[in-house]
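Subject: complex prediction, re-run

Hi both,

The earlier run crashed halfway through, so I resubmitted it with identical inputs.
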Amino acid sequence: MCSSNTGKLLQIAAGMLLGIAVPAAQGAPLQAATGQYVPGEVLVRFHQSLTAAKRAAIVSAMGNAVRTDYRNSWVRISLPTGRSVRQAVADYRTDPDVAVAQPNYRYHAMAVPDDPYFGELWAFQNTGQTVSYSPLQGVYGQIYPTHNPGTAGDDMDIVPAWSHITDCSRVIVAVVDTGVNYNQQDLSGNMWNSAGVTYNGASLVHSGYNFIGNNNDPMDYNGHGTHVAGIIGAEGNNASGTTGVCWKASIMAVRVLDASGSGTTSSVVQGIDFAVANGAKVINLSLGANGPSDPLFSDAITNAENSGVVVVTAAGNNGVDNDSGNNATYPCDFSQPNLICVAALDQSYSLASFSDWGPTSVDVGAPGTNILSTYAGTNATAYDSNATPFTSGWTETETSASSSGWTPWTGSSPLIPPVNGAPVPALTDPSNWPSGVYASNTDDDAYQTVNLSGVNAAAFYAYLYANVTSDGSIALACSPTGGDPFAAASPDYLIAPTYTDTAPTAPSGASFIPVSADLSGCLTTGCTVGLRLATGPTQDYGAALFDLYIETLTLNTSTYNVLNGTSMATPEVSGLAAMLFAFNPLDTYSDVVNAIEQGGRPVASLAGMTTTGNAIDVMKSLAYLSPPTGLSATVH
Amino acid sequence: MTARQWCGVLAMIAACLPGAVAGCGTGLPPWHPRPAPQAPGARRPGTYVVTLVPGTSAAALASIYSRYGLRSVTALGHDHYRMVLRQDPGPEQVQALAAGDRRIQAVQPDFIYRATPAPGIRHFGAD
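This time it finished cleanly. Structure:
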């Protein structure tokens, strides 16, 4: 016996099959058709030369009955109980007296939500519009210029699906990320109802847990997680902001990344375990790292698999083949069957320039450029070394008179090449970096004061070349009370003292690292942020810091932002997974994974670049029926 | 120069740095991918995730790793513990000590993961 949803699914599937099968001579499928049609009825147009009596005779000979004889030889025909519409249409099409045969399609008002920014949401309805939302927030809030506008129709085909389902709230989707601003106006009504749930002795009063601060407040102090959450489930058709894939949703906020967007195996694994233990059916992981496999992380995804949970993750944004060389990116490159890895497509369904791909690791593509969604608040710049170079406001000290200490650098090197003829400001130790070596046995500090008062969060981003042997170290620290942050008995390390070389090594690409840190412990008027190069007897080539940027976040409930990335493509798929689980609660994780991956739309830019070559397609996934397995036949 | 103009400038820097997929002067838009992080397997210094044999007390960690100054041990559930050492001997040494002790099932670095918005015009913060 079919469930009601299964029946709807079959209707969608059959309607799509019929629509696709209609040859042009028989009349193309009507564009407004939703795929649903009236069971037990077909519409047939006979050739004009036939009389009404002749038409009735043909219908009767087919075992059917004329219900209505319309103008222009159109006849509405009733089928006997149990007769397949699909078969009846096929039968009539073989009759030489028939010009057109088709189902009696149902029509609905198109389910376009009334959210004011819906017109910007090309992923849901690509009309060839130009995405031009402003104001943009922060260093990541950017308009991707390629294919903006793009190609009308290159979208997720979700609008017709909304005629069938918009409410996914029976399915919990865990956003394992930087947290979620659960007060955002488009999210507050779609958060997971965690009433009565406790974790580590704390009542979960904010729809999730914070594994960075180890408390029950998973507020987002970065913006990324809130953006992801809105793509999955910003409340739709509420005349406010944007809509998510699901108009109604149940978003579980799991904070595993700090205000700079960084976390570790231990926080991420805890977050996944928490989500599984508390009933999530879909886990969104818009995060990753290039590097060796991570067994503990892999175990967590296997644990999710054993609980029937679909895990959706980002391919990565290095623009490389994850399957090649040392490019493996995790969790994308894990191989569990409940894991879907997602590449990013632009508005013409080209692979986005930043998107990673992988013929064996990346599964599908989804819209990932110029994605407008909910955001945690407003960003501001507290410090920018390119606007205020290191020559201004920095205090530097050294314990050895022979050391140059940290020195403003405006030299020229292939490692930090000039841009448009202008050198890029840097802070280096030694002063003759990259050719010189630092002094032995010295502690060289440099720090800058920044005003971080009145904001909810701040984060530090920079690029660093570091060549320090193991008898020395390099560290970053901050002090909310000002002064040299390393003068404290227990410095508040942003990056704990570490070394990079086992023997002196000249700077190269291998010593280039991006660094980021959460400054939320330093939200004062006189916060100082600094770095220390501590050296031992062995001399090495030292360090260079450049492109230092400190960004603040002030929370509010009404901000939106345009972001780009496989991070943004991932929640499009998570939302679809939630929709599929909601549409047919009996689906297993493998049903949902198959429907997403195999029920997608072939896209040229993904051919050979992913396991399926498909972009996600909501209507096709809703209609996708997994082929039966385990069947056998006996031939007599 | 405005902050957003700087953004374009810095993306060009990124495209020119060693490890970039394409070289400078290609006329590529600032959206060309920044260089891949040059520290694959980036990990939090001195921090490891240890899986103990079920039934083993976390005190076992002190007996094995106290020589490096055990700053903290935090239970993560499922017999997993986050261990922070004051002096980091490196993953190989930490794993070598674990291999000789039946109380430890596995130990690995605490790898760093990042949110994955595209860096766009400047800054990384993501892979």
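The two ends of chain B are 28 Å apart (CA to CA).

- K.
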